Amino acid sequence: MSKQFWIATAAALAVTLGAAGAGWTFIVKPMRADAPLMPTYDVVDESGKIVGQYTVPSDDLIAKEPDAEAIMYGKRLLNETARLLPDNVGAGLNCNSCHLAQGKLDKGAPYINAYNFYPRVMPRAGKEVNLVMRINGCFQRSMNGKPLDPKSEEMTGMIAYMKWLGQGLPKEHMVKVEGAGKIDETLVPDPVNGQAVYAAQCAVCHGNDGEGKKDQFGDYTFPPLWGDDSFNIGAGMARTYKAAAFVKYNMPVSVHLDGTLGQGGVLTDQEAIDVSEYFTHMPRPDFAGKVKDWPTGKKPKDARY
Ligand code: HEC
Ligand code: HEC
């Protein structure tokens, strides 16, 4: 018998007994049967020592913050980027099309550590990158668009949301979550098998031609995976093994009956790599800035140029 069944049964019993006015009440802790509890992770210092615990905050808590308005604006922009920032977004994507569950999901490209992690030296840029530059990198590559003015209300809002999600941890502390899961990079991709995996596991949502699916109001309900509305070849997601590490742990979504987004567990490493080789190499926009990438070498083997 499932956990959901017992919770529902206990709740129904409480209501029945209460209505019967039996003279005694038993209290059922309010609980949503459709969602797991907010996950908690270890917090580590620079040496990797566990120094505390972090619980992913609920959005209900934003209203208590002094800069609640900026955080809420940033949250909205990250969710509805294509609709709200058409001048900066060239793709049919929102930031949270890839940063799943508003950047709160382990292995689903979370924003949890983003505020503390930057500035840092990145091999692709060959120099120090701060959070503003990192976000604008995703605008230019993943969103195939244009950078935001670093001083704009929009940029300030997005950073305010990421800062809030970090919950004021000291700069040198990190929450033990990962951007992506592990994938065996020694496996050789087979795009022919990838096409078969795509047809069986992905096309139902992302479309037979990777074009995604729109609702009757013209908004994407399922984002595109290739074509003019997809990310460009400069995006991290355009690289086979990076995409595979995302796909294996997060796609296909919603196959889990407890309502959790992501968690994967459907594809093997080989299948995730095959399908990623297939969809990343389908036609997609070029990236003019590519000539400046990896100026000091260290170019990864799955780089597209
Ligand atoms: C097509 C998928 C995709 C989209 C859309 C996308 N990103 Fe990303 N983003 C990624 C991936 C993948 C990474 C990790 C890249 C890497 O490791 O090279 C990343 C990294 C980041 C990071 C660094 C996180 C960290 O902790 O290091 C930030 C911040 C970020 N993105 C913000 C944004 C914002 C803001 C937008 C919308 C303007 C956006 N992204 C749109 C895929 C995407
Ligand atoms: C049940 C529907 C469904 C299936 C099946 C599915 N996806 Fe997705 N996928 C989504 C949704 C929805 C999102 C956007 C998540 C969000 O907005 O929260 C997404 C996002 C993505 C993204 C990042 C955004 C983008 O468009 O570039 C990639 C890459 C992706 N899926 C690849 C795959 C692959 C590969 C498969 C097959 C193994 C697959 N998906 C199967 C629904 C699905």
In words, what does this structure look like?
This protein is mostly helical. It folds into three domains: 1-34, no CATH class; 40-175, Cytochrome c-like domain (Cytochrome Bc1 Complex, Chain D, domain 2, Orthogonal Bundle), CATH 1.10.760.10; 191-292, Cytochrome Bc1 Complex, Chain D, domain 2. 34% of the residues lie in helices and 8% in strands. The protein has helices at residues 3-19, 68-79, 81-84, 100-103, 114-117, 131-140, 153-166, 191-201, 203-206, 240-250, 269-280, and strands at 40-44, 50-55, 120-122, 127-129, 174-175, 213-214, 220-222. The protein has a three-stranded antiparallel sheet, with no helix packed on it. A two-stranded antiparallel sheet has the order 3-4. Strands 6-7 form a two-stranded antiparallel ribbon. A hairpin with a 5-residue loop joins strand 1 (40-44) and strand 2 (50-55). Helix 2 packs across helix 7, helix 8 crosses helix 11 and helix 10 packs across helix 11 (269-280). It is globular and about 50 Å long. 36% of the residues are buried. Residues 1-22 have low confidence and may be disordered. The chain binds heme C (2 copies). One heme C binds at residues 93, 96-98, 100, 201-202, 204-206, 222-225, 231, 237, 243, 247, 251-254, 267, 275, 279.
